[in-house]
Design brief:
about 550 residues, Lambda_DNA-bd_dom_sf, globular, Cro/C1-type_HTH, HTH cro/C1-type domain-containing protein
Length: about 550
């Protein structure tokens, strides 16, 4: 049976999710967790806002919640639509519950009114007496826009980068501020930093103020991310010449440990800010591979070099340098084969398929996807099988092969379920791949073969399940929504969504994101005199050095 977004298999997955939630709720309550504590777990685990979490943790549908309301207050009945509006709010299409309704919801769910509003922004930072600390309500989770968790370490880092540490001189240069941050790629939780960047942008209402803040941040990040190269150069200078060619397990382990942070740094801060560090660590890994004496050491060092080379190619890809990306990918694949790293070979072939498809060469993308699938079967990794199917979907979709792309979607979903239940270790490069990625690819497929409604269903699921710290993936998923709104000629929502992407990527925009924004903006040319498109153009001018369109 082919998987069609919104069809029977999607309903089956919804039923599976309800069973998971019911099982987790039972476990939490049996462990004597309060409804508030259990709802907080639901917010984190299932990425729900608090109003949805308090209902879901009881296993109620919106209709059942309305029935409970009507049992208590029959003279003021509500339907499921009321609960839907309250739960969507403060998003588009939602309505805020009145004070009296909030009190009654709190009574039904046995919580406080504040618990129900934990996802709303706090403006305590506007108080001049608040100092450096931004307080946020307990239970705030990192989910949809407006539901940002603010870790104190990331908040401090952002203030450092902006030169806003309490007591710091306003004239301190970004380079001076970054002096103490020379280990940025090694120590920062970039997911948390992304959440804080988004929060600050949401709280600064005017374009000029945002542009000023983002300009300072970008300058500081350039200085901070370049510092590791200076550190490495000084270390090499201080090392005796006879020791430079020796294999050092600790050095190789350091390169391996850096990989996840470098990938996340690229997702949050962008390719150009990450590429210098990636190249530096790649050179170190190459030295270690040459110096390694025995087979085990050499295979490990070659695999590390291959992964860093693939990452370098990925950064070049996002910067729009497709020729360099291809060369790095070819080098990475050869090194991974030499290291006999089968799962890594699969991953590299998948990224080569993605590159070819993006360049308008879907047949080449299909070839790479087929090769990736063969190696994935040898690897035994369900993540490898799932992602090989994913890139096949995208290549087949771009080639106009509807039936084969749906078959590949089915294979991807089956492999994904195996991956999500697999208890074995997972390679770090799969950090980005989860159910949200499947729904994102489903949205791409629906854009080619189905209507806008199915695109929105898939894109909304992808966004709801997304890691909000991955600004790169979130931006592309928002652009799928924007394209669907455009097809519906819903200009307001299309322009608002594109504007959100322009804002999100003010710090870390890549050539590929810029290309998609430009394409979508050109598609709106017939309506360029409307208020919605004029406001979009204003946002683009405010956040970009050159207008798009």
């Amino acid at each position: 049976m082919s998987l069609i977004v919104g069809g029977g298999m999607a309903e089956g997955r919804s039923e599976s999710l309800r069973r998971q939630q019911a099982h987790l709720a039972a476990e939490l309550r049996s462990a004597d967790k309060t409804w508030v504590e259990a709802a907080e777990v639901f917010q984190m685990r299932f990425r729900l806002n608090p109003r949805v979490a308090f209902r879901s943790v009881r296993g109620w549908s919106q209709t059942q919640a309305a029935e409970e309301w009507n049992r208590r207050w029959p003279d003021e009945p509500k339907t499921f639509k009321s609960f839907s509006y309250w739960e969507i709010w403060p998003g588009k299409g939602g309505y805020s519950p009145s004070h009296d309704n909030l009190v009654r919801l709190a009574e039904i769910y046995e919580c406080s009114v504040a618990d129900l509003l934990a996802d709303l922004p706090s403006f305590r930072h506007l108080d001049s007496a608040a100092g450096a600390t931004l307080a946020v309500p307990r239970g705030t989770t990192s989910t949809l826009a407006g539901e940002i968790m603010v870790p104190s370490e990331a908040e401090t880092l952002l203030r450092d980068l902006l030169g806003r540490r309490p007591g710091a001189e306003a004239t301190v240069s970004p380079q001076a501020v970054a002096t103490g941050l020379y280990r940025l790629p090694e120590e920062v939780d970039f997911g948390e930093l992304a959440q804080v960047i988004v929060m600050w942008m949401q709280r600064i209402p005017h374009y000029p103020a945002r542009r000023d803040m983002l300009g300072k941040l970008a300058a500081a990040l350039v200085a901070a991310t370049a510092a590791p190269l200076t550190d490495l150069a000084e270390q090499a200078t201080a090392t005796p010449a006879q020791d430079l060619g020796r294999f050092d397990p600790a050095t190789l382990a350091h390169c391996e440990a850096m990989m996840p942070n470098l990938r996340k740094q690229g997702d949050v801060l962008g390719a150009s800010a990450t590429l210098p560090s990636a190249l530096a660590y790649r050179r170190i890994a190459e030295q270690q591979a040459r110096a390694a004496a025995n087979g085990t050491q050499r295979d490990r060092a070659m695999a590390t070099y291959a992964e860093l080379t693939q990452l370098t190619g990925w950064l070049c890809f996002n910067m729009g340098d497709y020729g360099s990306a291809q060369r790095f990918y070819d080098d990475a694949r050869a090194a991974a084969h030499e290291a006999r790293a089968v799962e890594l070979v699969t991953y590299i072939l998948c990224t080569m398929s993605h590159l070819a498809t993006w360049q308008g060469k879907p047949r080449v993308g299909i070839d790479h996807a087929v090769a990736a699938a063969a190696w994935a079967d040898q690897s035994g990794s369900p993540y490898a099988r799932a992602y090989a199917a994913d890139v096949a979907v995208r290549a087949l979709t771009a080639d106009g092969q509807a039936d084969r792309s749906r078959d590949a979607l089915d294979r991807e979903y089956a492999a994904l379920q195996a991956a999500l239940t697999d208890q074995g270790p997972r390679q770090s490069w799969w950090y980005f791949y989860d159910e949200s990625f499947f729904w994102s690819t489903s949205a791409q497929n629906a854009l080619r073969f189905h209507g806008a409604d199915q695109v929105l269903v898939a894109a909304d699921k992808a966004l709801r399940l997304s890691d909000q710290g991955n600004l790169h993936e979130r931006s592309f998923r928002l652009l799928f929504r924007a394209e669907a709104f455009g097809r519906q000629q819903n200009l307001g929502l299309a322009c608002q969504t594109i504007t959100e992407v322009v804002e999100l990527t003010s710090v870390n925009s890549t050539r590929r994101i810029e290309q998609r924004v430009q394409e979508l903006r050109r598609s709106l040319d017939p309506w360029k005199r409307t208020r919605a498109v004029r406001e979009l153009d204003q946002a683009i001018r405010a956040y970009r050095s050159t207008p798009v369109g």
